[in-house]
Specification:
alpha+beta, 13% strand
Length: 250
C-alpha cells in the first residue's frame, strides 16, 4: 500500500513538473522493481509454507510407522555409524589401505591385495599388524552394539539401540581358477583373519548377540558374490577381497 501511494505521488509530480520527468521516471522504475521483488518474495514464502506443510505431513506419517519399520530404520542408522567409526579409525592408522564401506552400507571392504598376496591365504607380518589393529578397533566399538559382560549401550554411539547379530568376516575371490579352489581360498583367508584377531584379543569372543553367541564369525564365498565384472583386471582385483559384514537384528 505504501508503494502504491509513492507511485501516485510520483505520477502527480510528473504531471506538475515536466522538466524533471526523466528523474521521476527513474524513481518510478525503481519502485516498480521493488514491488516486483516483493511479489516474488511473497510467492517464495508461499512455496516454502507449502513445503513445510508437506514435510510436517511426512513426519506425521513417520510417527505412524509400525514398530518394526521404525526399528529397521534405527538399525540402519546404527550400523552406518558403526561402519563409519571403524573405517575412520582404520584409515587414521593405515591411510594407504584400500578400505571402503559397501554400497549397501552393511560392510567394510578390503581389496584382496590390501590384506593378502595373490593366491595366498596366510598373512605376512605387515598385513598381520593391520588385522591386529582392526581387532583392537572392533573390540573398542562392539560393546555399544552387543550383549554380554562387556556390553555398554550408549545413546551417543548407538542412538537407535541397534543390536549386532554378527560381524561376519567373509573371504571372496575372483573367477580365475576352479570354483572349489576359490571357495577354499576365500574360506582360508577368512579363517586366517579371524585367527589373527582372536589370538591377539581372545576376549573378542565375549561380544555376544541376543542368543548369547559370539558375534564374530567367518564365511567363505569364493567367486560366488562378485561386486565387479571378472572380465577386467580392475574388476578381478576388486572381487579379491575381505568383507567385514555387520548384520543387525531386525
Amino acid at each position: 500500500r505504501r508503494l502504491e501511494d509513492q507511485v501516485r505521488l510520483l505520477s502527480l509530480r510528473a504531471e506538475s513538473s515536466p522538466g524533471g520527468l526523466a528523474t521521476i521516471r527513474g524513481e518510478l522504475e525503481e519502485l516498480r522493481d521493488v514491488e516486483e521483488s516483493n511479489k516474488q518474495l511473497e510467492r517464495r514464502i508461499e512455496e516454502l509454507l507449502i513445503t513445510i506443510q508437506e514435510l510436517q505431513a511426512r513426519l506425521s506419517q513417520l510417527d505412524e510407522l509400525d514398530p518394526l519399520e521404525r526399528y529397521l530404520t534405527q538399525s540402519a542408522i546404527s550400523r552406518k555409524i558403526a561402519l563409519e567409526r571403524l573405517r575412520a579409525a582404520i584409515k587414521t592408522d593405515f591411510p594407504d589401505l584400500d578400505v571402503v564401506i559397501s554400497q549397501e552400507n552393511d560392510a567394510i571392504r578390503f581389496k584382496g591385495e590390501g590384506l593378502f598376496e595373490t593366491n595366498v591365504s596366510t598373512l605376512t607380518i605387515e598385513k598381520r599388524a593391520i588385522v591386529i589393529r582392526i581387532a583392537e578397533i572392533l573390540d573398542d566399538i562392539l560393546p555399544c552394539y552387543t550383549i554380554g559382560p562387556r556390553a555398554a549401550f550408549d545413546m551417543e554411539c548407538n542412538p537407535g539401540f541397534g543390536v549386532i547379530e554378527a560381524v561376519q568376516i567373509e573371504g571372496h575371490t575372483d573367477s580365475v581358477g576352479s570354483n572349489s579352489y576359490n571357495m577354499r581360498l576365500g574360506s582360508d583367508r577368512a579363517l586366517s583373519t579371524y585367527a589373527a584377531m582372536v589370538e591377539h584379543i581372545p576376549i573378542l569372543t565375549d561380544h555376544r548377540n541376543a542368543d548369547l553367541e559370539p558375534v564374530i564369525s567367518i564365511a567363505g564365498y569364493g567367486e560366488d558374490r562378485p561386486v565387479a565384472s571378472n572380465l577386467s583386471v580392475e574388476g578381478r582385483s576388486t572381487n579379491r577381497r575381505i568383507d567385514m559384514r555387520f548384520i543387525m537384528y531386525t
